[in-house]
Structure formats: C-alpha cells, structure tokens
Specification:
By secondary structure, this protein is an alpha/beta fold. It is built from 7 helices and 9 strands; from the N terminus they run βααβαββββαβαβαβα. Strands 1-9-8-7-2-3 form a 6-stranded parallel β-sheet.
C-alpha cells in the first residue's frame, strides 16, 4: 500500500510522507465544509495522473459532496457504495461493526471495540435488520433505479468526509475488492494514523489531507459539518450526473 499526504510543495504532485500543508497543523486545521475538502482532494488526485477508466464511489451521506467535487474535477462517473455502521449500545457514533450490501451482506466486526459492554454476536445480529433496511432505503431514494457503474477493471476512488475507526471503510473496501477493480484508492480529507495503517491490506493508495495527532473527531476539522439530509445527497448526485 502507498500512503499519500498532500503537500503544497509547488511541484504539483502528492508528496509521500510529507505534512499536508506547510504549517497546517498550526495554521489551518479545519475545512470550511465538505465541498472545500472535496476540491482540495481533487487537486491531489488530479496530480496522480490516474489511469482510466475512473470511477468515484461515495459513502453516503457525508462522502457524497466530497466525492461530487472529485468526480467533477476528474471527469469521472459518481456512484455510491452503500455501507451501514453498527454503533455501540451506549455510543451509537462509535462503530463496533459495519454491514455492506450484497448477497449475502458482508459484516465486518471492529476488533478494537468488540469487547465493549453489551457488544457481542447477538447484539450485532439484532442490529442487522435495521441496517439492511436503511441500505435498501438509501438505494431506492438516492439511486432511483439507476444501474450501478461497473467496478471491474476500473481505477476506483472510494471517498468519505473522514475516517475515525476505519471500520465502515474497511468493510466497504473488503466487499469492493471482490468486484475486481484494477486499482483501489481511498481519498478522505482527514483520518488518524492508526486507521490508515489498518487499511493497509485493503487498498493500493490512501490520499488524505490531514492526519491529526492526536485525533479526536472528524467534525472538529470542519467549520460546517452539519448532518446531510436525503435532499442534499440527491442534489449532489444529480448535479454530478448532469456535469458528467
């Protein structure tokens, strides 16, 4: 796996192992919103001279406006990768597992949180029906019956608005590998070092703009990190298709 941090070195290409921007850790630690983060990621990806065919896959909801900017900049189609986090009983935002649509669906358990109070196989199984219903609902609302773009043989860029534990992203990537992309890239605005390392066996490259140490929460790195509604997601998808 190759890991990239985008550095504004003046050479117009990602700088492996560099800081995201000179002085960024002190001067700018937050994006104005997901759209700005997507534009900055797009600049990094364009500099990589990726081989076509390209496909951008967003993890909804938060990844969609980020991915829309990337798809627009690369002239690539935008599609969704539908995965649903299963949160801890007392901390719903903390992922203990994730489920990815499929037949049968793929369930990935987060080993780092699997021993939390109340988390066991029975708990995860009890949460699956609701997660699968939400995946199906999102497919119907967001994609509106449109066929999915082919993954096999493509350079696939998987996008979210950030990575915390990496459980959701890992589940998505493991399922995606089975569809045989030629190259698999993760692109996120912000992610902690340990989560990037954990994705090492799942992906060919990781591109991220900020790697906070210590890491506390994705939302701390945005001025506007509001929860997106279905209407905003559909609007971003429709705009990306219109531009494509």
């Amino acid at each position: 796996m190759s890991t990239y941090l985008w550095s504004d070195t003046g050479h117009g290409r990602p700088s492996r192992g560099a800081l995201p921007y000179p002085g960024a850790a002190m001067a700018r630690t937050r994006f104005s919103d997901r759209t700005q983060a997507g534009r900055e990621l797009a600049a990094a990806l364009r500099a990589m001279a990726l081989q076509p065919p390209l496909l951008v896959l967003a993890l909804p909801r938060g990844g969609v406006p980020v991915a829309a900017e990337i798809a627009r900049a690369l002239g690539a189609p935008l599609d969704l990768l539908l995965v649903r986090k299963i949160g801890a009983p007392s901390q719903p935002e903390l992922a203990v597992a994730a489920v990815v649509e499929g037949t049968p669906p793929d369930v990935i358990v987060n080993e780092d949180t699997a021993d939390l109070p109340g988390v066991d196989e029975a708990y995860i199984q009890s949460m699956l029906p609701a997660a699968l219903r939400e995946i199906e609902r999102r497919r119907n609302v967001y994609l509106k019956g449109r066929p999915q773009h082919p993954v096999e043989g493509a350079t696939v860029i998987v996008v979210d608005d950030g990575i915390a534990t990496g459980t959701t992203m890992k589940a998505a990537l493991q399922a995606l590998r089975r569809r045989r992309p030629a190259r698999l890239i993760v692109a996120v605005p912000v992610a902690p070092h340990q989560s990037i390392v954990a994705l090492g066996d799942e992906v060919d490259e990781v591109v991220r703009l900020v790697e906070p140490r210590p890491f506390h929460a994705i939302g701390l790195h945005y001025l506007d990190f509001h929860q997106l509604g279905d209407a905003e997601v559909c609007e971003a998808l429709d705009a990306a298709r219109a531009n494509g």
